[in-house]
Design goal:
The chain is an alpha+beta fold and 409 residues long. It is built from 16 helices and 11 strands. The strands form 3 sheets. Strands 1, 2, 3, 4 and 6 form a 5-stranded antiparallel β-sheet that branches. It has a 4-stranded mixed β-sheet with strand order 5-10-9-7. It is globular, with a radius of gyration of 23 Å. The mean pLDDT is 85.
Length: 409
């Protein structure tokens, strides 16, 4: 099949799946797409549509699984019912044959796997939409070998063209400001997926994390084998450990989860406030506890950098919130890129007051935390506030760490 033929078929298949959703959403905007009052869909109708959207995006493959994950983080733009449903879309796909793994290793490293590794497990440890991980032995060292899924880069490039075409159709009838938000999501998605599909970035990020925590002996970053790392392959030392959500396993290692949460929180606050470089995907599968009771951090494809200006501004806006200094919070909205120039300052003061009036108490249960988070998100719907991508990832990482800590205490 020629590249042109493949691209054409992909346009047809993706459009066939997604165009009905585009039309359905447009009818919420204008009942007859080009004219008419908004259509009112019931809560059950939204839930049913969100479920169908998740199922269809999962079947479209790696690009759309990643796209759904990005959309799910943007609760400041898309309704919560859709964000909640898309969060259920797990980055798990069937493994690809080990013969293709061997072929990628040979093409990337110039030698067959059997000449590089003393042993190589044919059964993968994990398979995701972009890559697959196998256990192996290299120079008497246990290692984890990650290989990029064959053909995924070409598929991503084709799917991006299809997505831009669908956005063009949507932009003909949807509000300009809303389309700006969607284009921002697509730009962030492109940046993220290109970053995650180039394993050289993961090597560089791991090196930076290792240096940042070199004097903190309770945090462990596995060593990357630089000479075996290319765009499509990356090799790390293999570390045995238990997941941070395995409370029984942690206790067997002599680790008290209630005390371990202090290390977890300290590590991530230090990344933001001191290092300005954050591991942005701290789900339990990427965080382990080893036999020495250290926190082991894995998978650095999704990493986030803050410059000094942003770090200082975050601290200032936090201080302003504590002092209930509305004018300084509004200034922070501008400085952090959360509003467009020309937005009425009085409206932003109302937004700041609304956020300040969301009540926080000393002790919160999980339900109350969710309710507060939803109140904050609703503020973004009501006012002209938008979350820059770096803050979206920061708050996502914060929510993941908070979720782990709630399970401990």
């Amino acid at each position: 099949m020629t590249k042109l033929h493949f691209t054409f078929l992909r346009y047809i298949s993706v459009s066939w799946v997604l165009l009905p959703f585009v039309v359905s959403f447009l009818r919420d905007w204008r009942r007859w797409v080009l004219f008419g009052s908004p259509r009112r869909l019931s809560e059950d109708g939204h839930k049913a549509r969100a479920q169908r959207l998740r199922e269809r995006m999962g079947k479209l493959g790696p690009s759309f699984i990643k796209g759904a994950q990005v959309l799910a983080m943007r609760e400041d733009i898309i309704p919560a019912v859709y964000a909640d449903e898309l969060k259920k879309l797990q980055d798990r796909v069937p493994p690809f044959p080990v013969e293709q793994v061997y072929e990628t290793i040979r093409d990337s490293l110039g030698k067959p796997a059997k000449e590089i590794f003393e042993s190589f497990d044919a059964e993968p440890l994990a398979a995701a939409s972009l890559g697959q991980v196998h256990r192996a032995v290299w120079k008497d060292t246990q290692v984890a070998v990650k290989v990029l899924r064959p053909g995924v880069l070409e598929l991503v490039e084709t799917d991006l063209r299809v997505i831009h075409f669908l956005l063009f159709l949507l932009g003909m009838v949807v509000d300009h400001n809303l389309m700006q938000s969607f284009h921002a999501i697509i730009d962030e998605y492109e940046r993220m997926i290109h970053q995650e599909s180039d394993f050289r970035y993961e090597m560089q990020a791991a090196s930076r994390f290792r240096e940042n925590f070199s004097k903190h002996h309770h945090v462990r970053i596995p060593t990357c084998i630089d000479e075996l790392t290319t765009r499509r392959t990356v090799v790390f030392e293999f570390i045995d450990g238990v997941r941070v959500d395995d409370l029984d396993g942690m206790r067997e290692l002599g680790v008290d989860p209630a005390e371990f949460k202090d290390l977890l929180i300290d590590t991530y606050v230090r990344m933001v406030v001191v290092h300005g470089f954050v591991h942005a995907d701290p789900h339990p599968g990427n965080l382990l506890v080893d036999k020495e009771k250290r926190l082991v951090i894995l998978d650095y494809g999704m990493s986030l950098e803050f410059d000094d200006y942003t770090k200082i501004e975050l601290l200032k806006i936090t201080q302003a919130a504590v002092k209930r200094d509305v004018d300084r919070i509004v200034e922070g909205f501008y400085n952090l890129g959360m509003v467009n120039e020309g937005v009425n300052r009085a409206v932003l003061r109302d937004a700041a007051n609304t956020l300040l009036n969301i009540q926080l108490t000393q002790r919160l249960n999980t339900r109350q935390v969710r309710e507060i988070a939803q109140e904050i998100i609703q503020t973004f719907y009501r006012f002209p506030l938008r979350m820059p991508h770096n803050l979206v990832y920061l708050f996502r990482a914060s929510a993941l760490v908070e979720g782990i800590c709630v399970s401990y205490d």
